[in-house]
Every structure is written in structure tokens, then in C-alpha cells.
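Okay, can you check this protein?
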Amino acid sequence: MGPITRRRRWASLLGATALAVTAGGALACPAGAATNVDFATHCIPPAVAGIPPIDGTTTAAIAVDNPTPKVGDTVTVTYTVVKPAASNPTAIALPADIMTPTGKVTLGGAQTGAVTVAGPKKNDPVPGNGAFPSFSMTGTFKVTTAGSITLSPGDYNIHTSYILELDTPCTVTNPPAPTSATITATDSTPVNNRAIQLDKASGAPGAGVTVSGSGFTAGATVTLAGRSGSSQTADQATVTAGSDGKFSGSLTVNDKTTTGIVAYEGSAWSDALGAGPAVYTVTDNTPVPDGSQKLTTTVKAGTLSMSQAGDSVALSAVDFGKGGASTGALQTVTVKDFRGGPAGWSLTGKVTDFTGPGAKIDAGKLSWTPACATKAGSPSTCKAGSAGTVGASGATLASTANGTLTGGEFTADAQLSLDVPAFTPPGSYSGVLTLTLS
């Protein structure tokens, strides 16, 4: 048997809910969104073009998938050149999908360096000597330092593959360019690497089981204990972890209701200083009286799943010139956890921008107030996520905690509110809210 880890993740199920609102808004940059910045750029056309370097202005924006990461997280960066300084260096019209952009995003503040970004080979047709269209490039970086980290547009290159392979590199004239986005990184939660394994998964009452552990504090006193559901039994023993954080000890198990075994440092069990539970079953070997028959059955573990009451939500209309809250209710989500193991679950959601007639409403304008309910008799208790912004980064709708035995049936709901800017152009806007169960 491999090590029993403190947390087990299960397969994700995706649910997409389309959200529509009839409204409008002249969209300046909403709070939390990327900010367009202008910066002087020096571009060098291909030699074959026979034209001098171009000194112009680039308009660009930086966006991130997670504005509040923890140290150790990987952040996805999107660098959008809204208006390039350069244009098609030749009189030849360029067809669609022949441009491949690459570039750099400059990090500053608590963490410095550069993030390499690249875009797909995709573009609208470009007329001869016409302006290059807007394009986006993405890349990732790992957060290594807590604090405020700034992101600024860096140098970029436009490669075209048509008749000839040509490059138009553009550099920031006075680096760094203005800050377009800022993220706030926090220290990550310490990782609990403690793990245990048993030499067997079952035994008769009074039998001993060997518990081996790793990742514990060197020299620490470790308690070995039986579990019956979420309660600790009277079966206990102690061992001392070696200088390498490992131990091996024996625990005598008498309680016939035992479902698992744990090991922990300190005076009582805690997720932060413990490992397990490792599944263990006591084999009832009580003799069958004469004239009697012993009956047994098996309970089979199931799956973690979710379903939705529907796949669309019509939010209330708002007036052009007034804007405000466009409200509605999320279609009820039912979660069924029939795994019968120690792992809880988390149901999260994230939303796209709301697109409409020539404009959009930023994803960060959608907020929710979650609620959840637990069906009577369920071993776990559902906890609603915090009220607040959903956005493209996402938020938690509902969850249950880890435990010795988890499971049950649950329903999750939320009141939705989209903050529509006052002068959003009239029309219908829609976005997609994706729910992930893990």
C-alpha cells in the first residue's frame, strides 16, 4: 500500500451555465481589469522593405488569471497589443492567419524578471502598408516572493509567414513601460508532507498493525490512534520519529468499530500535524452460536458527481443611462458524494466577459452570494462560499471538509448580481459561468 496522504483530490466535473443580461455600457477599464498603457516603441522593419526604423507609440494591456496568488502558484499572463506601433512593411496585402507574435512581460516590485509570451498564428487580413491588427500573447511564471508584483509590457516581435519569412521586432524605447497590471502575492500555507502506511488493512480484535510514517518532525513524539468515523477510539500507542522524520511502531486494535488509523504530533489530532486516516477494518471473529447463521454484506463505494437544474439564467434588465445591478438566481446545483472516503470536495465557478453589440461587460462585474444545504443524514456538512466577486479568476460556491468518513447529498445556490455600467450600449449581453467540482 502506498502512503496515505492527508488530502486526496478527485476527478473534476464541468458545468457551463450561460448568463444573459439585456443592458448596455460604454466600457472604461473596470476595477480589477487590465489597464491600457501607451509607450514609445522603436520598430525595425525587415531589410527587404527598404524603409527606415519606425519610432511610434504602442498601446497594450496585461491581464492575469489570478490577481492574488500564493507563493509557489503559477500565474498565466496575457499580453495584448491593442495598437502596434508598426504596420505592414510591404505594399503586398497579407492574408489571414500568417502572423505569429512573441514578446516579453516585465516583472517589477517584489519579484523581478521577464515572462516569455507567444501568440497563435492568427490574424485578420492586413492591407498593403496597412496597420497590423491587435493581437494577444500568453505565458506563465511561478510566484517566488510575497508582495506587490507589477507587470509591464515589454519588447515584442511580429513574424509573418507569407512568400517570405519576415520579422518586425519592436523594443520599448524607455524601459520599463508603464505598469499595466499589479498582483498581490501572499505566503503559501506550509505543506504537510506527513504520511503513513500500514502493513495490513484488516485484522482480528486484539491484533497488532504496524504503522510506518515519514515526513514527521525529527525526534517528535507521535501518537498512533484508531478512528471510528470522525471519533478517536481508545486504541492508542506512541512512537518517536527518527532524525530523518521516519518511524515504525505497532498499534493494537481492539475496537470493532474501527474504520481507520491516524498518526499525529501534539496532544490531539490536527490536519496540520497529522497523517491519515489509513483505512483499517477489524474482522469480527466472534464464534457463531449453535443453530445460528452469520450474515454479511458489502457496501460499495460510489462516485462524486453533480447536476444542474438548468443551463441558462436570465438576469433582470437595466436601463441605458442608469445601469446598476442586473440580478438573478443561479440554477440549483446538486452534489452527490458517494465515495465513502476521507476527502471533502470543493465547487468553484468562474465567468467569462459578457459580450454584446460591439461592447462587453467585464467578468469582474459579476458577484454572487452563495448558499448551500445538506441533506439529512449526510456524514459531511456543506459550507457556502463567501459572498463577493466571481470574475475570470473564480470563487468558491460551496465545499465540504476532509474527515475520517465523508459523503452525502447537497444543494448549492447563489444570488447573482451583475454591475452594469450606466451607458452600456443597449442590447443583449451574455457570458458563460463554468462550475468545477473537485
About this structure: The chain is about 0% helix and 50% strand. Residues 297 and 348 are 37 Å apart (CA to CA).
